[in-house]
Design a protein that fits this description.
Layout (H helix, E strand, L loop, with lengths): L6 E2 L2 E3 L5 E12 L2 E8 L9 E2 L2 E15 L4 E12 L5 E3 L5 E7 L6 E9 L24 E3 L1 E7 L3 E9 L2 E4 L3 E3 L2 E7 L13 E4 L2 E4 L13 E4 L3 E8 L2 E7 L27 E7 L10
Parallel strand pairs: 2-8, 7-12, 9-16
Antiparallel strand pairs: 1-5, 3-4, 3-6, 6-7, 9-12, 10-11, 10-13, 13-14, 13-15, 14-19, 17-18, 20-21, 20-22
Length: 291
């Protein structure tokens, strides 16, 4: 490889009030091979990276940068397919970006949460779930007050994975494609309960499995959530009869054996199909506190 042939990827944005954050992310894939890294640097991310032009079918990659002004957050992704072009620069225009307004509900008491998001390079979930406006000086850089509303400007044409972390709770979606124009999202809205999104629940023979990571989702389609501070029980019933019961305290996706209970669930049982019920204490969001 002749590094002298490298060309600088100059990233620009037509918002003169917006400044880039000293952070960037890079991901590459070529067949079964891949690599990714996130970098914090005092060097200007607008001209931090250089690429050697090459044509290679199947090689895909992106360069992600973060920008802020007083009111707006920008998440800019330059995507390269089948190699690297002779000019890898990216001139982003605000009018061409996807604008997403996200409303984050609260639980009636003062709290802070950290919204996270990341683009997918291919079909797999994003390798980077990052706060758009942090962290640079520490995790608090990415926090927002709850309830609250934020507007994000993102590169269109990607599936974006998003999540919200509030204390010991973590709420994530299954990814959403965003295009140019404006859209809205609502997070952390009541009522919280079990979700069957993704691999949230399943049955093999007489064994029913409900993933701990799906017990505390909000009402958003395709979302799942967990809460490490929750207490109470999860009960599997059929026709008013308890088949199995397990405590929720300490029940987390890893290790899941802390909350495993098995019960025989036969199709010939009277009383209809089994039902999962959860009871106990959890920081349930209150819709009335939304802004």
């Amino acid at each position: 490889m002749d590094a002298r042939r490298a060309r600088t990827a100059r990233i620009t944005l037509d918002d003169p009030a917006a400044a880039p954050r000293p952070r960037s992310e890079v991901q590459l894939e070529f067949g079964p091979w891949g690599m990714a890294f996130s970098q914090w640097s005092v060097e200007d991310v607008r001209s931090r990276f250089s690429f050697v032009p090459v044509r290679q079918k199947g090689l895909r990659s992106f360069l992600r940068t973060f920008w802020l002004n007083a009111d707006d957050s920008y998440d800019l992704v330059a995507r390269y397919t089948d190699g690297f072009p002779a000019d890898p620069s990216c001139a982003a225009r605000r009018a061409d970006l996807a604008e997403v307004t996200a409303a984050y509900r609260g639980s009636g008491v003062a709290a802070k949460g950290t919204p996270l998001t990341g683009p997918r390079l291919g079909d797999d979930p994003s390798l980077f779930l990052s706060p758009v406006n942090g962290p640079v000086n520490g995790p608090a850089d990415g926090e927002i007050g709850l309830p609250g509303t934020r507007t994000y400007h993102r590169s269109p044409g990607f599936v974006w994975d998003s999540a919200l972390e509030v204390g010991d709770s973590f709420l994530a979606d299954g990814g959403r494609a965003v295009g140019r124009g404006h859209s809205r999202e609502v997070w952390n809205a009541a009522v919280t309960g079990p979700s069957v999104a993704g691999l949230g629940a399943g049955r093999t023979g007489d064994e029913v499995t409900v993933a701990a990571g799906a017990l505390f989702a909000d009402g958003g389609a395709g979302r799942a959530g967990t809460d490490g501070a929750a207490t109470g029980t999860a009960t599997l019933t059929q026709g008013g009869r308890t088949l199995a019961e397990t405590g929720l305290a300490g029940c987390r996706p890893d290790p899941p054996e802390r909350c495993v209970r098995r019960a025989r669930v036969g199709v010939s049982h009277r009383g209809g199909p089994p039902r999962l019920q959860c009871g106990g204490r959890h920081a349930v969001p209150a819709a009335s506190t939304a802004r």
